[in-house]
């Protein structure tokens, strides 16, 4: 492709966490350099990147120098300030694009977008005051989940409401932030589809993984998901619809609830995704190389799955299990280079090969 990056050119990544680290490793395998921009010192991605800029997102001089040093920019998390993106985009392409990022940054904008393109979500209502919360509870019902519209992840910035007595404390937990009330979905399976779209509009979807969460944080993803072939194909179609509507380039993670014959969209992340880590051990290409290929203008790979796998996050002191896990045949360990284990902190993951690929 004429727009494809050549070996030796440089990809800029906003954010230096574990996803940036894994993207940098994938880029290096393709002969591409990575420049990390991260406000925090000594980020995990910095250990494997070609270069690192340590500066805040409001440092215009640092952002300008960063943008001028790279050939395309991507990001490993959603909450990059708009002003920083404005400065970067004036100098170098950002992939995925700003529309995808802005839509995913605000839960209300995200749900409105999904409904507008004909996709189902949980019932929802935006609110700021106690009176508005009472009205939202009347329309959305209970149980329901109150969430901040921005910045929440891994169970943070949300509170469950099972009856009206929970409402004042839930609203107080939002700490004045704009909020959205989402109806609770009684689902049979929670799945996610990791999908990619290239500069040439090609779309490639990894098989859906089935997710189990604990305390609001992803615990395991198993592939194949326990869903029908028809549901799997509909999930692929949903991911493709989102990618096309956003004119998206790169990898996306789309979380869905399966309830009977219905698929309800939970949310999407405009980046590589924790639930896609199984691809490192179970498919002919992993999500990180597929993302690098997409944003660099390289051809996408048909992401065929060759094994049944289960990915388990190593959270907090789970890291202490590493020596025992290392003795398991078929266990692929991936640690993130984080110096300190804290409760709720993702320290790494392990993907266990369960056998040759089967269908459910």
Give your account of this protein's structure.
With 360 residues, this protein is α+β, with helices and mostly antiparallel strands. The protein has 3 domains: 10-94, Rossmann fold (3-Layer(aba) Sandwich); 123-183, ATP-grasp fold, A domain (Dna Ligase, domain 1, 2-Layer Sandwich); 189-356, ATP-grasp fold, B domain (D-amino Acid Aminotransferase, Chain A, domain 1). The chain is 28% helix and 29% strand. The chain has 11 helices and 17 strands. It has helices spanning 18-29, 60-68, 82-89, 98-105, 107-116, 130-140, 167-173, 229-245, 279-282, 287-295, 322-325; strands at residues 10-14, 33-38, 51-54, 72-75, 124-127, 144-148, 158-161, 179-183, 189-197, 203-205, 209-214, 217-223, 250-259, 262-269, 307-315, 331-335, 346-356. Strands 9, 10, 11, 12, 13, 14, 15, 16 and 17 form a 9-stranded antiparallel sheet that branches. β9 (189-197) and β10 (203-205) form a beta hairpin. α2 packs across α3 and α4 packs across α5. The model has no long low-confidence stretch (mean pLDDT 94).
Descriptive labels:
single chain, 360 residues, alpha+beta, Rossmann fold, Dna Ligase, domain 1, D-amino Acid Aminotransferase, Chain A, domain 1, 3 domains, nine-stranded antiparallel beta sheet, 11 helices, 17 strands, 28% helix
Helix content: 25-40%
Structural class by secondary-structure content = alpha+beta
CATH homologous superfamily (4th level) name of the largest domain:
ATP-grasp fold, B domain
Order of helices and strands: EHEEHEHHHEHEEHEEEEEHEEHHEHEE
CATH level-1 class of the largest domain: Alpha Beta
Structural domains: how many:
3
How many strands in all? Answer: 17
First-last Cα distance: 38 Å
The gross shape turns out to be: globular
Q: Largest beta sheet, briefly?
A: 9 strands, antiparallel
Alpha plus pi helix count: 11
The poorly predicted ranges are: none
Mean pLDDT: 94
Assigned CATH architecture of the largest domain: 2-Layer Sandwich
Radius of gyration from CA coordinates? 20 Å
């Amino acid at each position: 492709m004429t727009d494809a990056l050549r070996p030796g050119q440089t990809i800029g990544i906003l954010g230096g966490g574990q996803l940036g680290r894994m993207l940098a490793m994938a880029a290096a395998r393709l002969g591409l350099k990575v420049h990390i921009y991260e406000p925090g010192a000594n980020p995990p991605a910095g250990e494997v990147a070609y270069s690192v800029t340590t500066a805040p997102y409001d440092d215009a001089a640092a952002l300008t120098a960063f943008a001028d040093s790279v050939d395309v920019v991507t990001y490993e998390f959603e909450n990059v300030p708009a002003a920083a993106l404005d400065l970067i985009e004036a100098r170098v392409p950002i992939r995925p694009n700003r529309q995808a990022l802005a839509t995913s940054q605000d839960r209300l904008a995200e749900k409105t977008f999904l409904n507008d393109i004909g996709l189902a979500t949980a019932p929802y209502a935006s609110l700021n005051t106690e009176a508005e919360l009472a009205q939202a509870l009347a329309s959305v019902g209970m149980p329901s989940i109150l969430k901040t519209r921005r910045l929440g992840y891994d169970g943070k910035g949300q509170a469950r409401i099972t009856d009206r007595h929970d409402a004042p404390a839930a609203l107080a937990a939002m700490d004045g932030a704009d909020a959205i009330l989402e109806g609770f979905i009684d689902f049979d399976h929670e799945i996610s589809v990791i999908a990619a779209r290239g500069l040439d509009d090609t779309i490639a979807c990894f098989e859906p993984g089935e997710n189990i969460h604990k305390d609001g944080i992803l615990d395991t993803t198993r592939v194949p998901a326990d869903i029908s072939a028809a549901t799997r194909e509909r999930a692929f179609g949903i991911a493709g619809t989102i990618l096309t509507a956003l004119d998206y380039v790169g990898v996306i993670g789309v979380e869905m609830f399966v309830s009977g014959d219905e698929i309800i969209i939970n949310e999407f992340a405009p980046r590589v995704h924790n639930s896609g880590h199984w691809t490192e051990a179970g498919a002919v290409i992993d999500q990180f190389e597929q993302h690098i290929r997409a944003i660099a203008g390289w051809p996408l790979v048909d992401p065929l799955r060759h094994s049944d796998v289960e990915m388990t996050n190593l959270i907090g002191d789970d890291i202490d299990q590493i020596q025992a896990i290392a003795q398991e045949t078929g266990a692929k360990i991936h640690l993130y280079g984080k110096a300190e284990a804290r409760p709720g902190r993702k320290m790494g993951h392990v993907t266990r090969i369960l056998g040759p690929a089967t269908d459910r």
